[in-house]
Amino acid sequence: MFWRTSLRSIDAAWYEKGIDNDVVHASLGFGPALLSPAKGPTVSAVLATHELSKSYGGKAAVKQLSLTVNAGQVFGLLGLNGSGKTTTLAMLLGAVVPDRGSVRWFGQAASARQRLRIGALLEQPSFYPWLSGEANLGVIAAIKQVSSVGVQRALQQVGLWAVRDQAFQGYSLGMKQRLGLASALLGNPEVLVLDEPTNGVDAQGIYDIRAIIGEFAGRGGTVILSSHIMDEVEKVCDYVAILKAGSLHHAGATKSVLAPGGWIELAAADLAALERALHELDAQATVERSGDLLLLRHSSLSPGELNHRLMAAGIFLHHLVQRQPSLESQYLALMGNGVKT
Amino acid sequence: MIRLLTAKLLSYRSFHKFTLLHVGLIALLCYIASRFTLNIQGSIDELRNLFALPGVWRTVTGLSRWLFYIPAFFVVQLVCAEFELKVVRAQVIAGLERWQIVASWVAQNLLMSLIAVAATIACGALLGYNSVASTDSSLTSSLLQIMRSELGYVIYGMAFLNAAVLCGVLLRRPVPAIILLVLWPMLAEPALSYGLEHYGLGAVVAYLPFASLGTLVTWHETSAVFDPLAITTLVATLYAALAAGAAWLVLERADL
Q: Going by CATH, does the domain composed of A263-323 fall within 3.30.70.100?
């Protein structure tokens, strides 16, 4: 998982340099995602939306959404059911006509020509039930002007080559999802747009799909991923945007979104002495007791630095663990549905 | 476009079944009608000559135009299925322009119309082979008759099938779309004609969609014979184009 390591190390580098404060509230408008750092040397915007809006029957589904996704990013789109994720992706992909606003792919107004450079899977895979997996990919290949070799490669990549002649309606949910991913991968797209790609997929399938996404991102491809599975977003995305009731609620590096809720657990033989020392070392941090442990929040010191300074003060720790809340709990807290850590 | 059409239709059994049913019923209807007229005793020459060269193609196309409901039902069913299965959306996302989707449906209609044309040419040739009318039956007049009948027939087919596409795109559900397709020529247009005549606009009636289409393909000589320059031909061709254009306009603004 070289690519994950690379992403983590890049994130860590930003974090060390203090570039961790790009979690910005939606009220800042165009700012947050635009400022998102791109992975690697390329920082050109692959996607830019400007005040994208869509209503259904007078009810706003997406409100003035402005986002920018840079080349090479693995961009997660999060939100509760009905928050506008799928509508947003559908507008990005030309399936839904926006009421207002604009979408630009690769620096140009969105068009069918731009979409040829994008591989996408929106909601459930949509294919002709009576056609085989291979014939269905043949239809998409005809649109994308991909040869039969490309179809074969895509089927092999998602592990459906052995059942290529079987009708789509006979496929299991997981196989359908894999075929959807195969159609997204046809023609070596520059960008993958995936809406809940692991829905209905078994554990092996989830692992395989994540590996495919990872491999794609590792080659420098851009991924826009919508999911409600926080673990998936945490594992795959290096940048997240959170939608709430159709508006951009938060956006930032995944690590940064997670970071504010982190804490350090410490324990020593003399807990009272440890507590005093912590107050002296970091006046801005908050210290609270939790059984035999002290919980240190909002500290500017790293665990290693803390240990070093406490040792110098004559306090020897027998427990030192950095804890991070899951993205799920952090996400719910951000959304105001609070599961506090 | 051809590759897309081939990929979509080659393995589609319903398409094969509807096509076979359409062609089979054209042959069956024409055969039964020809046997019926040949067995008529007496001196109704006009009727007996219906299946004789060179007018046989006019009769065959005139009779089998009613059978265009079969491919029309298929078209409605396929267009609605493509919406319901979200295949249209998948194809737009894959990079197809919306007008290209309508164009692929129109190309499909042309394919089905041409299959029907081939079937009627073959039926006319088989039925008229041993039966020559007393009128001019030279090769030239036969070819002219084929051209007139079949050109009218293909315009009729395209207009009718494009109207089926429009119904499918408008309603996206097969049953309401088929009801709309059937009710227009059977109820709406006659009612409209009655209304127009009532208000002294009877001259317009001939240019209503199915009225003008009806003059293109006719099975008896006393009706208006197809004329490539006739205004109704142009109007019917315009209706075929209008139906496709309207389907494109609706699709262009539709959320998929």
A: yes
* Ranges for all domains in chain A classified under CATH 3.40.50.300: 2-117+190-257
Domain with CATH 3.30.70.100 in chain A: 263-323
Q: Which of A112, A130, A143 faces B13 most closely, judged by CB atoms? A: A130
Judge whether A254 and A232 are in contact, CB under 8 Å: no
**Encoding tokens for residue A51?**
């005040």
Instruction: Extract the tokens encoding B154.
Output: 């293909």
Q: Is the ipTM of this complex over 0.85?
A: no
Q: Which of B30, B227, B22 is nearest to B128 (CA)?
A: B30
- Cis geometry, peptide bond prior to residue A98 (ω within 30 degrees of 0): no
List CB contacts (< 8 A) between A183 and chain B. 90, 94
pTM equals 0.76
Give residue B255's identity as a one-letter amino acid code. D
Residues from chain B contacting residue A96 (CB–CB below 8 Å): 255-256
Residue A160 tokens, joined: 């459906």
Supply the pLDDT for residue A38: 35
Q: Which fold has domain A2-117+190-257?
A: Rossmann fold (3.40.50)
Extract long-range pairs of A150-157: CB within 8 Å, 24+ residues apart. A150/A186, A150/A187, A151/A186, A154/A182, A154/A183, A154/A185, A154/A186, A155/A182, A157/A182, A157/A185, A157/A212
- What average pLDDT does chain A have? 80
CA–CA gap between residue A176 and residue A170 (Å, rounded):
9
